């Protein structure tokens, strides 16, 4: 099979490798689409010790089962492999399993390849009404769905009159904004630094898209919910500033660092801070249903490219030359730019 292999900082190369061999309880899946995630970019820069080179990155796949009794089944793949036996798994919080593994981290190779081996329990049927490229959004949209679910459980105001402030217009930030829109939140503001991406986001109905220097954003407080989909020091400072007294900050962003939160203000104003990681099995299943039912909207903001152009796509995203909130690679070679 062909695979896009991370070989060192900012080095990706298309290589011919042997097909993976499924173990007991696993299926061989032909990857038909796979998204590029921010964590892939983090690894691409050499900033993720959990993803050492050489390694196949990519953990947002959708495709078709080619082995076993489910051969021919179209699936979205939950890349989070868990033990199924610990307290977290048994309570339905599989994302907190202490023995969790994920595609694109050893010992599991990722999905920037023609084939992957994955447990049957991680496969979710893609309804006929859902395109395979849209099915590849299941993983990032599940992150957003999970984040909003946790946050809304803590909101103490009427959603129809509430205001949400989403920091970051990539797939997870945009996904969170789309979930909030569907949940009936009164006002959803998205902060995005890249002007090319802002133009794409502005076409999405019901969202206010702003740049960081927008004068309308001045002033502290006022937001019932802040979603930090970036997770850096600067964005945590913005989140601390924008949340109202009694408001909620949800933090799915993974840039890292220890600074940025105004703990004194959060304490005095009783602002709830929630860290959130990935999703549960139920979140993933419900996200696939939302995608098939059109609840995220038209999903016209994705861009498809052949796997062979993966290295170019990474470089353009890093340089800010890519407008799409999500680039999806096609290992089958059927996509054209």
TrEMBL record:
Pfam families in the cross-refs: ADH_N, ADH_zinc_N
Keywords annotated in UniProt: Oxidoreductase
Domain of life: Bacteria
Record flagged with keyword Cytoplasm: no
Protein name: Alcohol dehydrogenase catalytic domain-containing protein
Organism: Spiribacter pallidus
Domain Alcohol dehydrogenase-like C-terminal: 171-292
InterPro entries in alphabetical order: ADH-like_C, ADH-like_N, GroES-like_sf, NAD(P)-bd_dom_sf, Zn_alcohol_dh
Annotated ranges, domain Alcohol dehydrogenase-like N-terminal: 24-128
């Amino acid at each position: 099979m062909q695979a896009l292999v991370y070989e060192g900082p900012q080095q990706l190369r298309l290589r011919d490798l042997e097909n993976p061999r499924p173990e007991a309880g696993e299926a061989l899946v032909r990857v038909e689409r796979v998204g590029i995630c921010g964590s892939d970019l983090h690894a691409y820069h050499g900033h993720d010790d959990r993803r050492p080179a050489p390694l196949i990155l990519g953990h947002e796949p959708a495709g078709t089962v080619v082995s076993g009794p489910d051969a021919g089944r179209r699936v979205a793949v939950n890349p989070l492999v868990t033990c199924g036996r610990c307290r977290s798994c048994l309570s339905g919080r599989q994302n907190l399993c202490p023995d969790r593994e994920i595609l694109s981290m050893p010992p599991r190779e990722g999905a920037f390849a023609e084939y992957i081996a994955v447990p049957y329990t991680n496969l979710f049927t893609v309804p006929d009404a859902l395109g395979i490229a849209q099915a590849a959004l299941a993983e990032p949209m599940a992150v957003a769905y999970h984040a909003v679910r946790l946050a809304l459980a803590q909101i103490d105001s009427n959603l129809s009159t509430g205001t949400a402030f989403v920091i970051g217009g990539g797939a997870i930030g945009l996904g969170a904004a789309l979930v909030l829109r569907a949940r009936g939140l009164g006002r959803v503001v998205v902060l995005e630094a890249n002007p090319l991406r802002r133009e794409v986001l502005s076409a999405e109905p019901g969202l206010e898209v702003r740049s960081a220097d927008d004068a309308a954003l001045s002033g502290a407080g006022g937001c019932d919910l802040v979603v930090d989909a970036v997770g850096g020091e600067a964005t945590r400072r913005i989140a601390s500033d924008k949340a109202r007294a009694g408001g909620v900050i949800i933090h799915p962003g993974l840039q890292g660092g220890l600074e940025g939160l105004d703990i004194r203000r959060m304490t005095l104003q009783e602002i709830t801070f929630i860290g959130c990681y990935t999703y549960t099995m139920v979140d993933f299943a419900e996200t696939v249903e939302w995608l098939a039912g059109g609840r995220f909207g038209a999903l016209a903001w994705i861009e498809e490219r052949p796997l062979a152009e993966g290295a170019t796509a990474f470089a353009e995203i890093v340089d800010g030359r890519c407008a799409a909130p999500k680039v999806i690679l096609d290992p089958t070679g059927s996509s054209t730019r």
